[in-house]
Amino acid sequence: MNTNVIIIGAGAAGLMCAIALGKRGRSVIILDHASKIGQKILVSGGGRCNFTNLNIQAENYLSANPHFCKSALARFAPSDFIAMVKKHRISHQEKENGCIFCNGSSRQIVDMLRDECNSVGVKMHLNCKIEEITRKNRFIVKTNSGVIESESLVVATGGLSYPNLGATDIGHRVASQFGLRIIPPKPALVPLTFSRSDREKFCELRGILLEAVVNCRGHEFRGEMLFTHKGLSGPAILQASSYWENSEEIIINLLPGIDARSIFLSNRQSKMEIKNLLSRYLPRRFAHIWCEFYLLSRPLCQYNDKELLDASRLLNGWIIKPAGTEGYRTAEVTRGGVDTDELSSKTMKAKKVTGLYFIGEVIDVTGHLGGYNLHWAWASGWTAGQYA
Ligand SMILES: Cc1cc2nc3c(=O)[nH]c(=O)nc-3n(C[C@H](O)[C@H](O)[C@H](O)COP(=O)(O)OP(=O)(O)OC[C@H]3O[C@@H](n4cnc5c(N)ncnc54)[C@H](O)[C@@H]3O)c2cc1C
Predict the structure, then answer these.
(1) Cα 97 to averaged position of ligand 1 atoms, centre (Å)
(2) Pocket probe mutation, ligand 1, options 29, 43, 44, max atoms within 8 Å of Cβ
(3) What is the band of 296 on the pLDDT scale with cuts at 50, 70, 90?
(4) DSSP 8-state class, residue 368
(5) Which residues line the pocket of ligand 1, CB cutoff 6 A?
(6) Which residues, at least 6 apart from 257, have a Cβ–Cβ distance to it below 8 Å?
(7) Looking at the structure, do residues 313 and 232 belong to the same domain, yes or no?
(8) Total count of domains within the chain
């Protein structure tokens, strides 16, 4: 069987690329080992798909080359995806920080992509196991259901997170096979785990949710933080986790926007116990347990200046050394991947292999939480679709 372009991966990037190619009149076959398309889109945004963000900028992405994503993001803006969503009459709304969600279900986005693919004649081979990929003048892809040849091959196989949704390392293996470098992959947007001793110490905090500013290597994120039975989660922690390296500390401001020292000083003579004062600003259970660990709660008037200064420093800069992350099983994305130096930022094509393209999460471009990862998949897929 012959086609102009084979795309491996019927996820966000692969489907968008297929639509762009089909609109150009290219014949396209998408291969996927899963039985359904767009599985990660379906679970995204808690089932409501946070499909883009109005504030997209290169600064919202991690990559060894922070400039690489700029060209594709300029070429396919949030308004371009929103226009497609509007054309399909999918109700959506902006939530906080520019995040755009479906009002209904993520399923509507998958159906939209499927309809768009069908309208331009894209063929899909699902349950398709890739056995071998070779290249002579053309790409030859051997699968369990036959051999397909193409002029161009687009690898859109995503990252390693959520293996239960079909993630594999095939994209990295194909890149290595053709001599492209890989930036070592790591779980990102992932809960952090406590060391054994911290887990024992903080197990009573499990289930507590509070607003915090989490700082990891100078990158600060304000948002909710959740104590889990293993460690810390919640949006502020997930964002920070993308920057976290093994055995590093994170610094947590438990009272964002509040100077703990000034609240202590203004209650300096008070007979109120410190845990009760802190309960005005923090969840009561947290304030009480946390004070037991660190401050041995007593009336405020019984602390000396140094003790109050130390306590305020701790509240505005609690230092935790996570033992690790929860890994790919719960990581929303994978950072690292195909080195962007190996690809043209204008076309997504491998510089040294004619006709070979990489798009989406398989590339070393990782977005913050908030619709940035799906938008990268759309933008890079659309861009490659103009050239493959
Ligand atoms: C729980 C969860 C929630 C998320 N929520 C959001 C959100 O709200 N907003 C946001 O922007 N991002 C979100 N993300 C991230 C986002 O879903 C991904 O970044 C995005 O889907 C990546 O698109 P992709 O096309 O590169 O890869 P994928 O969507 O992962 O697609 C890769 C495709 O390749 C196929 N494949 C893999 N290996 C093989 C193989 N060996 N042979 C054949 N086919 C193969 C897979 O079956 C899959 O269909 C979420 C991720 C998760 C896990």
Answers:
(1) 23
(2) 44
(3) confident
(4) P
(5) 8-14, 31-34, 39-41, 43-45, 49-50, 130, 156-158, 161-162, 166-168, 170, 332-333, 360-362, 371-374, 377
(6) none
(7) yes
(8) 2
Distance 41 CA to ligand 1 centre (A): 7
Question: How high is the pLDDT of residue 295?
Answer: 82
Please give the distance of CA 253 from its chain centroid, rounded to a whole number: 23
pLDDT single digits (tens) 4-52: 999 999 999 999 999 999 999 999 999 999 999 999 999 999 999 999 9
* Residue whose CB lies within 8 A of the most ligand 1 atoms, among 61, 157, 169, for a mutation test: 157
Asked if residue 360 and residue 304 are part of one domain, the reply reads no
CATH number of the domain to which 28 belongs: 3.50.50.60
CA of 295 from ligand 1 middle (Å) equals 45
| C-alpha to C-alpha distance for 290 and 72, rounded to whole angstroms | 47
How many Cα neighbours within 13 Å face the side chain of 302?
Answer: 9
Q: What is the pTM of this model?
A: 0.96
Atom of ligand 1 nearest to the CA of 375: 11
Q: What is the CATH number of the domain that holds 304?
A: 2.40.30.10
Same domain? For 140 and 237 the reply is: no
Nearest to 202 by CA among 211, 212, 192, 187: 192
Distance between Cα 372 and ligand 1 center (Å): 13
The whole-number pLDDT of residue 192 equals 98
Does residue 270 share a domain with residue 196?
yes
Are 163 and 262 part of one and the same domain?
no
List the residue whose alpha carbon is closest to atom 13 of ligand 1. 44
**Domain range for 231:** 192-325
239 confidence band (pLDDT: 50, 70, 90): very high
- Specify the pLDDT at position 292: 87
Q: Whose CA is nearest to atom 20 of ligand 1?
A: 374
Strand-pairing partners, residue 101, are 50, 93
Neighbouring CB atoms inside 10 A of 289's CB total: 19
